[in-house]
């Protein structure tokens, strides 16, 4: 049998690699093979391994002529891949595995959009509305209803049910709702609905191939949030593709069956993430991402882009085509808009937003390339309804004038003043003056948005006092120097997934090794860590029971980490908004949660102001009771752990200083003092004697700590001898009234 890439003929879903230029594109000898004789390799697809589950594997599809095939097996879904052509003599496979893919098979090479358009045109059976009666009024696309059903989202959350009718009616929306209340889908569903139900424009590239056009841009303040939103929407996109393929193959999913979750290694079921390529192309463009991967994504075409302002502006500065697409968006979303003002990317955001503003006639700029691209419209429009952009891209100004971009601004904290101002707002005029005057506050920024809707809908469901009702709060008043021991006490006494917020990176650097010495699974998260490390630590935090995340406020907004039991404000935030967002990492989606404020004497005033600005009475937050006998034992452990840390730090610092001094002296051709040299060896390391002494001291301290850690800690109300075994998350105690 010759290989045929049509999904309808193979039970598997195949994704065609896009053609790429460069050395790999040499004329090759083609030889057909049968499917069974191909050198298939099976690998486990790294589902939900972090915030970018496809990292690595899906990149194979970007390689020239590599074919990706998803296949359901007894052991779960596996991904197979193969290379379709022999490459030229100059192209050497990177390793053995790559070499084994070099089978000489020629596949049909229709552009990727052919596949998507074909699915889009496919017959779509209505979803039985009786299964999801609460969603029925919104007339969502059957694919979306099916995903909501499979995720067991029986009814919309309040922000969703309030905003969906307005969004679907084409209104612009400013939505304010408590943390964890489902704002991502409040804007995500209308975007997906629109993409699924309206013509899909494709762009022609210079090489004559086609790519999908940017329809929606979601701007978020942090990389983690961008990746999370992309992940969240991609689960929908994959499941939609899966459903579409099943329908196309006549294998209608049994919608009445409850969704079954096949668990393997604690990971989500295959169904949950869908087994096919996305029907809607959704991707994050964020800092820390490899430039090559980013380029590949952009070349392929992204329909829903989730981006951070800094990286997006860098890309836009070099990609005129993308800038043109941004000026012709269908949707612009600012998620956690207020936070963007604080992240220092204000100018970039302002510049990006300016691209989305309609130009007045006198400001119109002649486009450099009238008509956009040179591709053949007919080739790209397989569905008969595309081609509105290909070969006829209107000018930036023209596009802006004509498109009906919808603007959504969402956050858990948007001031009432801003909402009032929005009602009275005047449309910004784009001209030279406006360009010279960058916005400087959130009010300015939001007022500079060019809402096409003369009366944007303001939906304010923010709770009284900013925090959700399922959140229980408590406080500890203590000296700054005692915070470590109180934190340690809490973590031992109330095990659970705990997010500890600190205001400084230095604080995290100090606390992380201390926690490690005390045997707690604590992971740092701050902006000075490499992106890969940040994601890795987030992932470990998600996967490890009773893990602790020591984070700065980069983790305060939007992150939807499942089952965070406790949030600890180790240092009190300066603003009420940050306080609300930090606390909002727990008690999400109607679950219970607990937040603890650790207040040092010099933070009293901040707390007072914070509660005043939230219009709350601080007395409603109860002081947490602490067993002092237990605290004393823990103080001893902390004391020794600190000594070990100081000792290790001292040795490291001495080594570093010595090495630096030696290198500097060598560079300047200066001979160092004999005293200095006698204390070091050639490599700038301390003498064996000094090393031995230092490590001996550390070893003694470690032994002391080990003995202390082995001593049982008996806590009141805990049945077992060690407090770490058998405690319930504190939120449960509070709810049961067990904590005074
Ligand atoms: N209709 C629904 N039913 C049940 N769960 C839902 C529903 N919609 C969303 N969720 C879940 O609720 C959780 C919180 O959603 P999301 O992250 O969108 O909240 P948010 O309002 O954006 O929070 P934050 O303000 O902290 O960013 C997610 O895990 C999401 O999958």
UniProtKB/TrEMBL annotation:
Transmembrane segments: none annotated. It comes from the Eukaryota. GO terms for molecular function: ATP binding; hydrolase activity; RNA binding; RNA helicase activity. It is an enzyme of class 3 (hydrolase). Pfam families: DEAD, Helicase_C. Residues 1-28, 247-278, 362-400 are annotated as: Disordered. Its main location: nucleus. It catalyses: ATP + H2O = ADP + phosphate + H(+). Residues 164-432 form the Helicase ATP-binding domain. Keywords: ATP-binding, Helicase, Hydrolase, Nucleotide-binding, Nucleus, Ribosome biogenesis, RNA-binding. Residues 133-161 form the DEAD-box RNA helicase Q domain. Residues 1-12 have a biased composition (Polar residues). One of its GO terms (cellular component) is nucleus. Belongs to the DEAD box helicase family. This is RNA helicase.
């Amino acid at each position: 049998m010759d290989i045929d890439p049509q999904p309808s003929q193979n039970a598997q879903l195949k994704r065609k690699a896009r053609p790429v230029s460069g050395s790999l594109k040499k004329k090759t000898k083609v030889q057909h093979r049968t499917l069974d004789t191909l050198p298939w390799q099976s690998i486990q697809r790294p589902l939900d391994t972090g915030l970018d589950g496809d990292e690595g594997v899906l990149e194979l599809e970007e390689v020239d002529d590599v074919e990706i095939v998803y296949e359901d097996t007894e052991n779960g879904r596996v991904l197979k891949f193969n290379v379709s052509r022999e490459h030229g003599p100059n192209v050497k496979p990177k390793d053995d595995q790559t070499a084994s893919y070099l089978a000489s098979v020629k596949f049909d090479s229709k552009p990727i959009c052919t596949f998507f358009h074909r699915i889009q045109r496919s017959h779509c059976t209505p979803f039985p509305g009786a299964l999801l009666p609460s969603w029925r009024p919104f007339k969502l696309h059957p694919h979306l209803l099916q995903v909501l059903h499979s995720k067991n989202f029986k009814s919309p959350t309040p922000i969703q049910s309030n905003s969906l009718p307005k969004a679907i009616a084409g209104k612009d929306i400013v939505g304010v709702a408590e943390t964890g209340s489902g704002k991502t889908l409040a804007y995500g569903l209308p975007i997906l609905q629109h993409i699924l139900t309206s013509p899909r424009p494709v762009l022609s590239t210079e090489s004559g191939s086609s790519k999908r056009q940017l329809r929606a841009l979601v701007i978020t303040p942090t990389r983690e949030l961008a990746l999370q939103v992309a992940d969240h929407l991609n689960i929908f996109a994959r499941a939609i593709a899966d459903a579409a393929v099943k329908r196309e193959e006549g294998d209608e999913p049994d919608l009445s069956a409850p969704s079954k979750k096949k668990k393997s290694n604690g990971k989500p079921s295959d169904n949950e993430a869908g087994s096919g390529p996305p029907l809607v192309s959704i991707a994050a463009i964020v800092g820390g991402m490899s430039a090559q991967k980013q380029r590949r994504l952009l070349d392929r075409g992204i329909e829903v882009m989730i981006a951070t302002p800094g990286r997006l502006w860098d890309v836009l500065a070099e990609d005129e085509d993308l800038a043109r697409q941004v000026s012709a968006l269908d949707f612009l979303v600012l998620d956690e808009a207020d936070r963007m003002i604080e992240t220092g990317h204000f100018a970039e955001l302002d510049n990006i937003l300016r691209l989305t503003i309609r130009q007045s006639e006198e400001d119109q700029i002649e486009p450099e390339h009238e008509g956009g691209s040179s591709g053949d419209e007919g080739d790209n429009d397989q569905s008969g309804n595309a081609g509105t952009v290909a070969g006829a891209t209107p000018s930036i100004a023209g596009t802006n004038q004509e498109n009906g971009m919808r603007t959504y601004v969402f956050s858990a904290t948007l001031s009432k003043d801003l909402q009032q101002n929005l009602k009275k707002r005047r449309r910004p005029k784009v001209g030279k003056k406006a360009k010279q005057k960058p916005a400087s506050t959130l009010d300015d920024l939001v007022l500079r948005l060019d809402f096409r809707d003369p009366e944007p809908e303001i939906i304010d469901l923010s709770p009284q006092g900013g925090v959700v009702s399922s959140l229980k709060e408590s406080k500890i008043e203590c000296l700054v120097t005692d915070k470590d021991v109180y934190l340690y006490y809490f973590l031992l006494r109330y095990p659970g997934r705990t997010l500890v917020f600190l205001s400084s990176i230095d604080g995290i650097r100090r606390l992380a090794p201390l926690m490690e010495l005390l045997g707690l699974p604590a992971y740092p998260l701050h902006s000075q860590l490499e992106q890969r490390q940040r994601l890795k630590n987030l992932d470990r935090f998600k996967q490890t029971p009773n893990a602790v995340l020591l984070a700065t406020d980069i983790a305060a907004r939007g992150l939807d980490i499942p089952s965070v039991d406790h949030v600890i404000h180790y240092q009190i935030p300066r603003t009420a908004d940050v306080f609300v967002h930090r606390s909002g990492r727990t008690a999400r989606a109607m679950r219970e949660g607990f937040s603890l404020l650790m207040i040092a004497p010099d933070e009293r005033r901040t707390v007072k102001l914070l509660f005043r600005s939230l219009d709350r009475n601080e007395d409603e937050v109860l002081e947490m009771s602490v067993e002092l006998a237990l605290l004393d034992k823990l103080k001893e452990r902390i004391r020794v752990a600190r000594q070990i840390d100081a000792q290790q730090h001292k040795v490291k610092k001495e080594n570093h200083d010595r090495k630096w001094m030696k290198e500097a002296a060598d560079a300047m051709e200066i001979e160092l003092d004999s005293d200095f040299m006698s204390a070091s060896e050639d490599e700038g390391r301390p003498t064996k004697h000094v090393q031995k002494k230092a490590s001996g001291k550390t070893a003694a301290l470690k032994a002391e700590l080990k003995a202390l850690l082995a001593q049982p800690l008996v806590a009141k109300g805990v049945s077992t001898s060690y407090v770490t075994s058998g405690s319930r998350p504190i939120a449960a105690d509070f709810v049961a009234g067990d904590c005074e």
